[in-house]
Amino acid sequence: MPDALDVDGRPVRRGCEQHQRLRTSFCVAWEQAPFDHPSLVIPQDYVGDENAVTARPVSPKISTRQALDALISLKPIGAEGRSVSGGPLQASYNDL
Q: 49-81 burial, b if ≥16 CB within 10 A, otherwise e?
């Protein structure tokens, strides 16, 4: 079934999909609503190096010793998004 056409004869579905994709990627890059978030703490790795890690404090609920997580904290971002001075998020492959 062909796409619906608007009054100028252009496909409506394709235009809406393109607009939504561009709008979504803009909102994601600037962390604008609905992609804003509260303060987040994320485990990144373990505290230590290739020779030894720091042990997590002993818990009566866990019988095995575990390494202490290294954490990173993300600042909260409101619905208006990131500041212009902070710039948009970069694609993940830029960090490789």
A: eeeebeeeeeeeeeeeeeeeeeeeeeeebeeeb
pTM (two decimals): 0.49
Using only C-alpha atoms, what is the Rg of the chain? 22
Which residues contact residue 15 at a Cβ distance below 8 angstroms, ignoring those fewer than 6 apart?
6
- pLDDT for 43-53, tens place per residue? 988 999 889 99
Instruction: Tell me if 14 sits within 8 A of 6, measured CB to CB.
Output: no
In the chain, which stretches have pLDDT less than 50?
A: 1-2, 96
